[in-house]
Amino acid sequence: MKQLKKKQENNPSPSPSTLSKWDRQYVWHPFTQMKEWEEEDPLIIERGDGIYLYDVHGNTYLDGSSSIWVNLHGHRHRTLDAAIQEQLGKIAHSTLLGAASPPSILLAKKLVKIAPKGLTRVFYSDDGATAVEVALKMAIQYWQQQSPPQKKKNTFVHLDAAYHGDTMGSMSVGGTARFHERFRSLLFPAIALDAPYCYRCPLDLRFPSCRTACLEPLEDVLRKRHEQIAGVVIEPMVQAVAGIITQPPGYLSRVRALCTKYNVLLIADEVATGFGRTGMMFACNHERVTPDLLCVAKGLTGGYLPLAATLTTERMYEAFLGEPGKTFFHGHSYTGNALGCAAALANLEIFKKEKTLVHVRKQSRLLQALLKPLAALPIVGDVRQCGMMAGIELVKDKKTREPFPLSEHMGYRIATKCRHLGLLIRPIGNIIVLVPPLSATERELRKMVHILTKACRTACRTISL
Q1: Is residue 108 domain-shared with residue 156, that is, in the same domain?
Q2: Nearest to 269 by CA among 124, 131, 111
Q3: Residue 130's Cα: distance from chain center in Å?
Q4: What angle do CA 114, 347, 447 make, to 5 degrees?
Q5: Residue 20 is assigned to a structural domain of this protein
Q6: Would residue 61 count as lying in a domain?
Q7: Rounded to whole angstroms, how far apart are CA atoms 103 and 90?
């Protein structure tokens, strides 16, 4: 202990100002305009405890984005910490290429047990984008290995404004122009259809009298081109990065029915919605839907370590059995990492012991009630929510639903005010996104919404409506 203390004295931690300087000098941050970042005092998070984060200056913040939608049970949860420490005493990582490990085996078994019925095989990867990439490649190869081969089935259908990741394949089935447009020449062609965006319905209809007319283009495409379509890619119940766009009841189950009718695979991207986020373990459970491929990541390890998985059916798995040429040639160096799998196993144990889903459903109802008054503010056009995922859409004109120009940075301004008041959130354009950790208490939720409401009211006073 004395030697450790002496070593720390000889190598003191850099000061906050030094860290800020080095950050500007060496680090390139994701989804961040570095010109603006270099002009600001960077937020440097040093530690966390529960749903609170602490920066290097000692300031305290509520983690209103769950550290970008990954943290479920709070930071420094004893069960998660202990599981990782125990696994470190055995081995941190070993390859799954031609080998196996106890944590990856045990986790696969548990994932199959809790997944929608019919999903029986687990393929590990590193993050959400790669989980989707795996699903796309599996789908293409699956059709090629049918008897007879269906090589024409090499096209995918996705929803407009969708976001499935930043790899080339996942971007190809995405529709977030701001993120993807510059790389269009590198992407494969896909079929984009209007999202079920009820607040800004492209058909100018209203639910439920519309009878979910937004599904008619999907059926039309599948009817005419099912021989060329390998799969439909969808975020069940909620399009997250698109702006927390919630789907009307029955939409998901009808997509499943259409895919079955026209012999097209359904790929469910539950990277953001999985592991309790929507009040069910998986969003597909809301409408008792089993996809052909299920992509999970983010909350898989409780927000501790990067790990992802693509789950599929026995029918799909069997199409890859036989001669060496049928092998699925895909993998990553850290596939099925032992530490990540140990954390994921502990994460699932917490769900069971702490009755997390029961807590989430209760807190979701509270969150809905707390957010309701926000809808009355002149800059709020729509408040959307599914479980512990909420989106507040900001508008310049409430009657016409005219959005604020992105150049006004309205979402960013409100998020900045929230930060000054002790709440960390990250907007998506004009959408304020509130995705608290699932473990948030009533007091913590009330405090988050109070800060958010105060920031929105401040914004109302600073603009001319």
Answers
A1: yes
A2: 131
A3: 13
A4: 110
A5: no
A6: yes
A7: 11
What CATH number is attached to the domain comprising 203? 3.40.640.10
Q: What angle do CA 67, 70, 71 make, to 5 degrees?
A: 75
Q: What are phi and psi of 43, to 5 degrees?
A: -85, 115
Those residues whose C-beta lies under 8 Å from the C-beta of residue 13, and which sit 6 or more positions away, are none
Sequence-distant (6+) residues with CB within 8 A of 326 are 145, 319, 320
CA angle, residues 167, 172, 178, in degrees to nearest 5: 85
Residues 291 and 278 in one domain: yes
Whether 213 contacts 196, CB under 8 Å? no
- Residue 361: which H helix or E strand, with range? helix 356-371
Number of folded domains in the chain?
Answer: 2
Amino acid at 319: A
Q: Could you tell me how many helices (H) and strands (E) the chain has, helices first?
A: 16, 17
Work out the average pLDDT over 250-263.
Answer: 98
Over residues 271-291, the pLDDT tens digits come to 999 999 999 999 999 999 999
Same domain, 215 and 284: yes
d(CA 302, CA 73): 7
| Domain finish residue from 353, 377, 408 | 353
The stretch 79-91 carries a mean pLDDT of 98
Q: Is beta strand 265-269 parallel, antiparallel or unpaired with respect to 245-246?
A: unpaired
Flag whether pLDDT at 307 surpasses 90: yes
pLDDT of residue 17: 94
In a domain, 33, yes or no: no
In this structure, the answer to whether residues 225 and 287 fall within a common structural domain is yes
Amino acid at 129: A
Indicate whether 153 and 244 sit together in one domain: yes
**198, part of any domain:** yes
Q: CA-to-CA distance for 232 and 225, rounded, in angstroms?
A: 12
Gap between the Cα atoms of 291 and 138, Å rounded: 14
Are 167 and 250 contained in the same domain? yes
Residues in the chain: 465
Please classify residue 58 by burial: count the beta carbons closer than 10 Å to its beta carbon, then call 0-12 exposed, 13-18 middle and 19+ buried. Answer: exposed
Q: How far apart are CA 217 and CA 198, in angstroms?
A: 16
CATH number at residue 48: 3.90.1150.10
Average pLDDT over residues 76-95: 98
Does 344 lie in the same domain as 409? Answer: no
Over residues 110-139, the mean pLDDT reads 98
> For residues 27 and 181, what is the distance between their CA atoms, to the nearest angstrom?
25
- Choose among 55, 51, 93, 56: nearest CA to 76: 51
Q: Does 404 share its domain with 419? A: yes
Q: Which domain holds residue 112?
A: 81-353
83 vs 78: CA distance, rounded Å: 8
Picking from 322, 353, 384, the residue at the C-terminal end of a domain is: 353
